[in-house]
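Follow-up to my post from last week.
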Amino acid sequence: MKSILAVKNINKTFYSDWGEVEALRSISFACSKGEFISIVGPSGCGKTTLLRIIAGLENPNEGEISIEGNHAKGPGNDRAVVFQDPRLFPWLTVEKNAAFGIQNLSKEEVKSKLDSILKLVGLENFRKAFPYELSGGMAQRVAIARAVAFKPKVLLMDEPFSALDAQTRARMQLELVNLWQKTGKNIILVTHDINEALLLSQKVLIMSSSPGTIKETVEVPFSYPRDVDTTEFLRLKKHITSNVF
Amino acid sequence: MKGLKQIMTSIKSQTLKRNISDISLSGKIIRGLTFPIIVIAIWEVAARQAIIDPYFLPSPSSISYTYIDMLSSGLLQTHLLTSLQRLIYGFFIAATIAIPIGILVGKTRTFRHWVNPTLSFLQQIPPIAWIPIFILWLGIDEASKVAVIVYAAFFPIFLNTVQGVISVDPKLIEVGRSFMLTPGEMIRRVYIPSAAMTIFVGLRLGLSNCWRALVGAELIAASSGLGSLIMDARNFSQADRIFVGIFTIGVAGLLIDYLLRRIESKLMPWKKMYQAGGQS
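User reply:
Got it. Predicted complex:
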């Protein structure tokens, strides 16, 4: 399969008054069309930094990101980010937040697009609500809708469910798989939750810290919807857990 | 997300609080009016008992007769309208200058370093102190008065705009970047709405500042307006007219501020979130 996203030999060092920290060392991987990849690792291993570099929000010291063979520098309309916190604009309604990134479309087109996307994330009845009226899970769904409406080739998610309560998180995970299957987008999900990575993605990149490197790449062979109680699942989980910590 | 949860809970507690304050809203009005009513009552009694000399302090009832007289002759309205007109001119000019410059200064740190000391210096000078030189430059007519108002309104609007722009949530700016907003779009779609509430605080402060400066300017040099009405009355020793002028100034100021608050809550329905003390 042709690769959509290629991460080539990324190095990143942060310099500050108290010294320098090597955050990432020679990170390389590729993401083929439609693939769902998770990045797991202990906190502070640089997985968020890696995602931010892929998003173009941060520049690497070395290496490059390319999308469909084209060098990508800075943010681009081929990538969209869902952050850990929803980061909605408090002065915009749900639908206007979701439409934030939409460009060059007529009113009718925007409307029909919003209709389908808000339906996809289950917010069609909250179009006119303001962010302060939403629960955490709903707000994060708006953030996902906003990213999807941008029509990126790759959806980048930085621990999007980590601040949600357990039930909401479980429901959102199912919805994300659903959304991925319906839209066929590439997803790169950064998470510290190994269970989440195994439940959702086809491939898990395990990172080690100081400096952040990719220690191992694990293929997840299970079909969807996944059952977390099978022995194979548990064995793989155990393997990853022992590798992360 | 944790922040959002906090907001949700604080909104809940806020609505509870609001219910409580709703119950006492009429109570609040009554409480607020009690003190002035008592003062006026004592004042009226004192005047009727001839404890105070009406030459210096006319009774509230005679002031209200004068007030009705001045209303029915249209004199009060003419002066009030003149003052309001100056206020509106000056205020709008000030806002049109102060908001764009404020955004620019707020966005560029180097610019801030260049202009901050000068502005802090200018800020210390009361608008009234400029009146003589404005009259010298612009003449005794409208222009000098409008200039004073512009000066009075500029700093509150400007400083709050700068503050509002500086305190835009960097996380939202990052969202704007990731959606590839152009610099212009960034200002229009992220900075201005983010700073809108702080800018509005500046507008309100600016307006009440101008109102005060305007009356000051009219007291010193004007042939019309509420300030000049008071000065004329003083020249003829008409204490009742002075009081009518003073009360009109106070009431008009209150109404203007109330109007601006209404506009604010109409324009910014999401404001509740911030008032709930939430910080996302």
